[in-house]
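Question:
Now give any protein.
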Amino acid sequence: MRQRNDAVGWLVAAVAIVLLGLAAWHLPAKFRSWWDEARSGHQVTRLQRQLYAARVVGVQHPEFVVTAAKAIPRTARYAILLGADAKTRLPDYRTAVPFAVYWLYPRRVVNFAAPGQWVLAFGTKESELPDGLTSRRELIPGVLVARQG
């Protein structure tokens, strides 16, 4: 009986050693592949990967450009307004504005919005907005898109 218990013990120990050896052999490669997937953004959507660069340079809510791109037609022209509150309400406006211009291409930026054109306003108060704006939509707090009527 004692010999049988010793044999079972040695068998269990041998199986444990083989399993530990296999784990030690496969785990480093598995960890490397998990690390590579995480670093390459494998688990995030394409849109999140595209907006990641804006987050790196300090744009806190880059999703507003996606909504603006849906609101402003591709062939339209738009003006960018910076209000007095842009610095306080949007600390990232210095990077958000160029990013918006880049993302909204091929829409053209103009100096002043004529009737039928669009306005993308950063940190503007109601009194700073031009008269006759229609289709107003707040993208994020402090950023507004509207059509000049």
